[in-house]
Hercynine oxygenase
Amino acid sequence: MRAPQSGADQVGGERLRGRIAAELARARSRTALLTEAVDDDDLMRQHSPLMSPLVWDLAHVGNQEELWLVRDVGGREPVRCDIDELYDAFKQPRRDRPALPLLPPAEARAYLSTVRDKVHDLLDTVRFTDRPLVADGFAFGMIVQHEQQHDETMLATHQLRSGPAVLHAPPPPEPRLAVGGEVLVPAGEFTMGTDTDPWALDNERPAHRVDLPAYVIDAAPVTNGAYQAFIDDGGYSDPRWWSAAGWEHRVREQLVAPMHWRRDGAGWAYRRFGRWDPVRADEPVVHVCWYEAQAYAAWAGKRLPTEAEWEKAARWDPVTGRSRRYPWGDEDPTEAYANLDQRHLRPAPVGAYPAGASPLGVHQLIGDVWEWTSSTFDGHPGFTAFPYREYSEVFFGDDYRVLRGGSFGTDRSACRGTFRNWDYPIRRQIFSGFRCARDAGPGESGR
Ligand SMILES: [Fe+2]
């Protein structure tokens, strides 16, 4: 027999139900925006071998929602088990997806809406028990984040498609503060990862203590202006700055500048979402691969931060000694704190979010551009795969490098001070930038 629910449980459950419904709706309206901005022909087409046709992402989002919520959490009958294989990201490599017998757009949309109806039905009655998949609405949160992550992938596909602009957004705020230079992070322990954020994914857990020597980190992401100095100084033609693998990649792919840049008189122009703009000097550089970031850092006499260094700079509060959820505190992101949620279609200039700085004065860690770190992707000490190995564990190892902090195209539901992203060191179709770090020099440390 079920234990009766207390009044407080009921209130908490209702609040959680409301939050889940709002987050599901927000994700779906973004998916609709990204897939209704182009015609059916465009949705079915592959814009780059790196990406799926948008219509694959669309039905895949619905299929994951069906698998986890309708079938697993709800224990309901399948809506369409005949398409599971088609939309399994592990069975279908991206380059092969356009040749699959994909659901045409109208059918994909109808499928998504049937699944969503069943999820709303389930949400009305589900009890948030201690079962790990439903405690604190975890599986719903995972599906919200999954859809938002695919929306960011779809936004990256939009950046790769040719043709006139179809996405529109106001520009990000202008700088409100002059931000530059470096910040010293004193030696000592801090708490990395989380045990308490209810929708944190398996790779963000568990919380654990990490002791770091003193280091210095850039107060802001590397800007286009700084990056252009590296280009102008012959950075792309000097193997001294590049790792052996990075140099080989640079030569093979003939990289001479960030992706989507072209020469424009004496300067550079940058194509974003179908429009050419002059490269703006005070904006964080975006669309660089890990090898480019590493070469820039070497040229600047620095290095990339480790993942732990990035997270300590973002979360550690020297006054309380505790780690915050975000650089500015524990409060969810708002427009005052960070450039997230695809509100703008570009990174904001450095100094645009003074309210979002960390206690030590490190700016724009969240939003704007994903930041490459020097770290390979691995489990935190004590890692347990949940709810399945394919979420993160199968990606652990030397092949990937960790990116942190989210971009202008990352939704706030899929971005935290602990959130971890990973990709191959050659990838730059993602909204990736970086900042530099270095060991503290003599006289700079101090515990
Ligand atoms: Fe997926």
